[in-house]
Amino acid sequence: MTADLAAVQAELLAAVESADTLDALEAARVAAVGRKGRLGALMKTLGDLPPEQRRDYGQSVNALKTAVETAIDARKARLDGAALDARLAAERIDLTLPVRPEAEGRIHPISQTIDEIVQIFGQMGFRVAEGPDLEDDWKNFTALNIPPEHPARQEMDTFYLRAGADGARPVLRTHTSPVQIRTMMTEKPPIRVIVPGRTFRSDHDATHSPMFHQVEGLVIDEASHMGHLKGCLIEFCRTFFEVADLPVRFRASHFPFTEPSAEVDIGCTRAGGEFKIGHGDDWLEILGSGMVHPKVIANCGLDPDKYQGFAFGMGIERIAMLKYGIPDLRTFYDSDLRWLRHYGFVPLDIPGALGGLHR
Ligand code: DAH
């Protein structure tokens, strides 16, 4: 009987050792120790033996089972390792290879410009915040100190939707400024956010699109003042337009949500019939800004005697057109591949303050 078991053991171990795939090993396992396997069959013969032999025989079969299972585990570990090695070899990629020339896609100038803006303000400690395209009237207007009869509502050519159950009409946000409200209502100062996003106004001609993009900035803490606003925006303009000594001018203006308010102009020249950003005899307006109005801070549930700060907003298409010499606003949304190949950006040229923001 023991001789039999030794032969069975040799046979089962040989089957395990010769299994060269995980599937084959599983088949060998089932044949050996599975419910209807060889060892089960041997155990069933236990009852046919004379009682004095049963104990020894049972122990021998159990020892055999342990030996086979140990062999299966060891074999499985080897096959697993080999399978992983094979997969690693098959899926190997060489990150040092040059980019394939056939990579045809281009980053849209709007995306590129947003990436650059986020990168510059990110370096100054701002983080990105977002809000929905569909906004409620209160956050888009009222909370920003634009009450129902305020002329700014008409100026913004708002797209209104049908009134909801509460009688209020949702709007497609006319600017990214409502994200100021969302941020101040949900976060405790200090706040430093930059908010790129889509905006909508019922206006369509060579210089206006019903959908366009803005980026909003908001800083709220206990000490930020107009000097910080100026330093921050001068730094942004010079880095974004890549002109180290770019003249930047702050011109008194009015917005309902800031007091005082300033529009920001950058220097430019049209000398010799060629437009250029930098020193020159002319100015170009590129953004609106100001100290956040105390009423706006209070509308968000923050104490305006404790907190203060500044905000700014600018049109992304406009500064993209200026920086990259794109002459017509409407072409941004034409999805013309020739245009995108010309004005688009290579995906791996990621803007970074350290690497410069050059193409
Ligand atoms: N929301 C203004 C607009 O769409 C732009 C703006 C001006 C945003 C001044 C601001 C700001 O945050 O302080 O015309």
CATH topology of the largest domain: BirA Bifunctional Protein, domain 2
The first-to-last residue Cα distance is 83 Å
Total individual domains: 2
Bound molecules: 3,4-dihydroxyphenylalanine
Relative strand content: 15-25%
Features:
359 residues; alpha+beta; BirA Bifunctional Protein, domain 2; 2 domains; 8-stranded mixed beta sheet; two-stranded antiparallel ribbon; 12 helices; 41% helix; binds 3,4-dihydroxyphenylalanine
Could you explain how this protein is built, in words?
The chain is an alpha+beta fold and 359 residues long. The strands form two sheets. Strands 1, 4, 5, 6, 7, 8, 9 and 10 form an eight-stranded mixed sheet that branches. It is built from twelve helices and ten strands. The protein has two domains: 2-90; 109-345, Bira Bifunctional Protein, Domain 2 (BirA Bifunctional Protein, domain 2, 2-Layer Sandwich). 41% of the residues lie in helices and 19% in strands. Bound molecules: 3,4-dihydroxyphenylalanine. 3,4-dihydroxyphenylalanine binds at residues 175, 177, 216, 255, 258, 288-290, 311-313.
